[in-house]
Amino acid sequence: SPTTDDDVDELGNKIDDVVIQDVSNFKEDQREHLNIVFIGHVDAGKSTISGNIMLLTGQVDSHTMAKYEREAKENHRESWIFAYIMDTNEEERAKGKTVEVGRAHFETEKKRYTILDAPGHKAYVPNMISGAAQADVAILVISSKKGEFEAGVDGGQTIEHARLAKMIGIKHLIVLVNKMDEPTVAWSKERYDDIVEKITGHLKKCGFNPKKDFQFIPASGFTSANIKDRVKPEVCPWFDGDSLMGTLDALAPFERNDSGALRVPIITSYKDRGVVTVMGKIESGTITLGQSLWLMPGRTPVQVASLSNETCNFRTGRTGENLRIGLKGIDEDTIRAGSILSEIQRPVPVVSEIEAIVALIDLPKEKQLFTSNFEAVFHAHTAVEECIVKSLVATIDMKTGQEIKKKPTFAKNGESVKCRIVLNRAVCLEEFTTNPQLSRFTLRDSNKTMAFGKVTSIGKKAREAI
Ligand code: GDP
């Protein structure tokens, strides 16, 4: 294509001059990659535990951790891990990268891990949703401390987070019964058993299967007992299970849609030595160095110039991987919220009207009823778009999926409803049966999530356009 002045970046590199990364001389990391998210009531110990993991896996040394801890206190930040993550990204921010998500990485001999939306951030609750939506495993942290467990469960965020995790599609939960070292608990088996029984009841109600969907670990983020190493028998003689990290390492490999069409929703982008570099999680398919792709919406042709993460380069990226992808052929301005890297042979549909099932959880006070003409902000992957409900098709029994009532005039909190939604501008979306990750969305109003949804149909026209 002809080169114009526009194709030259600030360093004088022509965007078409980007060289494909040389990977002739490196060994690809074959370890499985897992995305995890910490959820649970405030003060349960999520930051302490994620911090501990970073320390125990050598991602940060105790001296640096103490520095961040001190700075976090001075800056009235909620936790050191937040400070740490923001700090790591400071360099990238200098390169013009905007930081929207806090992510931390660690690794063991068996696997590589990304902690999504590391907690401690003030905006954690809305973030919990976008982070959890990409997680393979959620770690539900519960305080066993007298009074705290009770507050977290009765009207607290413990069960709410578990319920959201289920709706978002998290298949596996590890329930960490934390603060077992607390004097009021002192590794009491009775206290632990009581918590296990109560939480099991709640999780069953959320739709998790006690036989395979969740497991419990007693732990202390404070003393590190059962975080990396197993708790010592002299501290806790009655627990013979594995530690948190041992349990994560031992989880059976997750089913990955490697043969699906390639989809990478772009979380953020920046310029690295003149190369437009994007970050994102591969939701389906595989990506290969040198591959030609489309940036959607808009079908902008791009070529994959580099693939890497914090620890290594890749020739091929598989589903579930969080990667930095250098792109040849585009300008940074082309990338916006909602952009997706897509396979050319099977491009992602771009749609402006959908049929969806929506679970109503928290409608705003002034509009308690969900009706046609209801307006909200639609969030799917990184896309944000205004939307309006065109019509209600039927109320749905969430347990059976059966239609309860056709064409209801309204629906209320606690109900699920199939409806038609019109988006102000078209968004990259797929049907739940094709790609659940790209079908999930939330409806929000200012700062509140009022509903969760999944796209059931993108319509015949959109399907034919693929
Ligand atoms: P988050 O809001 O879930 O991220 O909770 P934090 O990690 O900030 O912890 C909240 C408070 O509980 C802090 O004062 C921690 O020091 C304390 N804490 C965290 N884990 C433990 C633990 O295992 N034992 C005890 N005794 N205190 C803990």
Quickly give the structural class.
alpha+beta
Distance between the termini: 26 Å
Percent range for β-strand residues: 25-35%
Number of strands: 21
Mean pLDDT across the residues is 85
Listing every helix as H and every strand as E from the N terminus to the C terminus, the arrangement reads EHHHEEHEHHEHEHEEEEEEEEEEEEEEEH
* Contiguous helical run count: 9
Q: Unreliable stretches, pLDDT < 50, 5 or more residues?
A: 1-5, 92-100, 119-126
Largest β sheet strand count, sense and barrel closure: 6 strands, mixed
Strand order of the largest sheet: 2-3-1-4-5-6
- Computed over alpha carbons, the radius of gyration is 23 Å
Shape: globular
**Distinct small-molecule ligands in the complex:** guanosine-5'-diphosphate
Helix content: 10-25%
Family: Belongs to the TRAFAC class translation factor GTPase superfamily. Classic translation factor GTPase family. EF-Tu/EF-1A subfamily.
Protein name: Eukaryotic release factor 3
Keywords: GTP-binding, Nucleotide-binding
GO molecular function: GTP binding; GTPase activity
Question: Which helices and strands, and how do they pair?
Answer:
Blueprint (H helix, E strand, L loop, with lengths): L31 E8 L6 H11 L5 H13 L5 H15 L9 E4 L3 E5 L8 H10 L3 E7 L4 H6 L3 H12 L3 E7 L10 H18 L7 E5 L25 H7 L12 E10 L2 E7 L5 E2 L3 E5 L3 E9 L7 E2 L4 E7 L11 E3 L7 E11 L14 E6 L2 E14 L6 E4 L9 E13 L11 E6 L2 E10 L2 H6 L1
Bound molecules: guanosine-5'-diphosphate (GDP).
The site of guanosine-5'-diphosphate has 18 residues, from helix 1.
Quick tags:
21 strands, alpha+beta, 466 residues, disordered N terminus, binds guanosine-5'-diphosphate, 6-stranded antiparallel barrel
